[in-house]
From TrEMBL:
Name of the protein in question: Maleylpyruvate isomerase family mycothiol-dependent enzyme
Domain Mycothiol-dependent maleylpyruvate isomerase metal-binding positions: 12-98
Region (Disordered): 208-230
Alphabetical keyword list: Isomerase
GO molecular function: isomerase activity
Pfam families: MDMPI_N
Amino acid sequence: MDTELVWRAIDDERGRLADLLDDLSDAEWDAPSLCSAWSVREVAAHLTLAHTGLLSATVSLVRAGGGFDRMIRDTAVRHARLPVEQFAPRLRAMVGSRRTAPFVTPREPMVDVLCHGQDIARALGRTHPMPVDAAAAATDHVWNRSFPFRAQRRLHGVELVATDVGWRAGDGVRVEGPISALLLLVTGRPAALADLSGPGVAALGATFPPGAGPAGTVDASGRPSGGERS
């Protein structure tokens, strides 16, 4: 998927997610997401920060004592204090923009919005289909980069096969399922397990860090909760 198609996928997903946010009740905004200790409101706030500039990011990092994960958490919590009615318009205002946060490619915000959309929707029992071509490109990107998810190391000895698009990776015992589930798997989300099958599924639980619950909890930077930083 070339860069322009990546941006179109980001635009489409931001628009679709904004529509979902418009439909949330007060109780759903305050409900836990699949991100450990993060509410739906805080995950939504995090997604609106993808245009953070270098100066703002540097100030936030200093305020967080130099901790990257803490910076992500703190900035989302601060922005979550805004009225929830602002989050969907803020996401829509980003559609068409080609800005990214410092030091990331367009593929990182694509992974971010696809996965966090599921962190919100699945936690609320809502259906939010993931576009297969974008999911395949995002899964491929995560698989071929060591940071931050270390997917190849975590899933060593496993062959991943998508059942709805031509994507496969790895070598070993077979695990198959829709590409949306494989994206959740390679980004460390145990919620993927419900949608996967094959002889390798039984061993997948051991690939998640200690403390990652069956609901698929990850921190809102997209990293699995508990265990080593990944």
